[in-house]
## 1
Amino acid sequence: MEELVLPFVQGEDGITYIDMSKLHTRLQFNRVVLVIISFLVDKYHGWRFQQILSNAGITSTEDLFFEESKETLEKLLSNNLVQQDFKKYERKAEVVSIDDFKSRKN
């Protein structure tokens, strides 16, 4: 069985951020999709399952059989309903002066 990867970073704003750089396999992407869908089932417990999938932007009239799990997760994380609680974690580059950089190398 593949190792469980936990790519979640809790933000100070109450939103759970997904560190996409920690995800490498279809199974890992699928597990994160399931966590988000499970969260939505709990949050919107009065909704029907297909209603949750539709409102989260998962279902479509087109054939998505060949859509990769990474694409599904990207689509899910770009949905307004999901973004209330989950967002993609974007690492910010640390700004340093050239002197700081040189001193770190030594």
Note: The chain has one domain: 8-105.
## 2
Amino acid sequence: MALYDLGATYSTGASNLPSSSIKAGASSNVRIYEIAVNNNAAIACSFGFGRPANDGSVVQTGTTSFQPESIADPAAGVKFATTWSTAPTSPSVFLRRGAWPATLYYGFIWTFPRGMILFTNKDVCMWNIVTATAAMQVSIVVNE
């Protein structure tokens, strides 16, 4: 297994909608170790992180590949997306929640010390609980 990283800046969209998703590839499980999120605009936000109700059925479009920490490692199968042809639906229970005030660059870090396991072809998503459209930055560390 190898470590992979991803850093992205994107807009969250409207309230009560998914803002991003992570999907494991078809050939290997993924362990998520860290998700760091910060506000790239002075807008108050409330987010949740969890398995969507339609876990495994999300179809990502416009994906971004995670990058290996070692150039000797193979390309990652795990993908990150902010657009979908079949979008994630709201998790019934959030694994993590976070919020920030209308303060530029305010943020938080969710850690999973043993790695949150994401099985092949399964999904997790960031859910925009309550906010106007906001710009955010995210950094994610996974093991695949």
Note: The chain has one domain: 3-96+114-136.
## 3
Amino acid sequence: MDQVSTTQFCHDQLALVTSAPWIIPLLLIAGFVGWKLKGANDEDEIRGLRAELDVAALRLELEREKLKAAGTKQRKPRKRISGG
């Protein structure tokens, strides 16, 4: 691991990249593809979290309607403390 931090290693890697100019476009393409895949994955995760939030809001509204129909006094919900 000490080899990576040496100036000789950096010089060798720079020489490799400059000797093969086709590496740079491939690195750019790979970076772009990875960035797009990560973005798509993040969008799916956000969409799932929003769906969970919508379900929780609907359940809360349903419980409030049940309490109202039963004629009981509503109390404020306590905050949940995550153990995480």
Note: The mean pLDDT is 83.
## 4
Amino acid sequence: MADYRETGRPREREILPRDLRAHYIEARMNTWASNSERFSSWDLTVPGSKGFVYPAPGMEAEHPSPYLYKDIYIDGKENGSFSGRETNTSGGNENDLITLYSCMGGLTGEGMELGEGFIYGRLLRGFLKDYSRDLRFGKNFSPIAILLSQMPQTIFILKSVGKREGRTWHDEESIEIEGGPKIYVFKGEGIYNPEARRRALLTNPS
């Protein structure tokens, strides 16, 4: 069980329109953050890649949206590393990119000692799910302390620094042990194309 103690929550203008952002948040919460097999996709073009699609084929009526979200990533061979990209496209034209978010991350030596399953499966998934409304949209967070019942003597500090420039945004995340080393690092960059969104709404009105 995780206990998040935050010293501040971002209060910044949103970089994406409300409907697109809501779809993006819902997709993130229901895919990797939830580790949901309902939206897993192994029919990907890059050998060895993994990913999620939201809504999944056949679930469009259950999750109606003019947008289609895909999360494709590849695990590295060392240090729990990964690289990937998230896209939002028109449900009727997957080649028309509305948003593109490229990212990479990994664990430090101290992070590898704690284990990929613990950091990704317990710490990061919990954080992504609980803070999906604000995380990885180019926003700034005050440090957040993460307390786990199974490790009551250890406080994990998550930091996220964002930057916005026009229709692009940048994020840097890290998790460290209070008073100790970093155990996880992440960088991501996103871009938004409003013309593609308008085409999606004209083609697939919700």
Note: Helices lie at 18-30, 109-114, 116-130, 194-203.
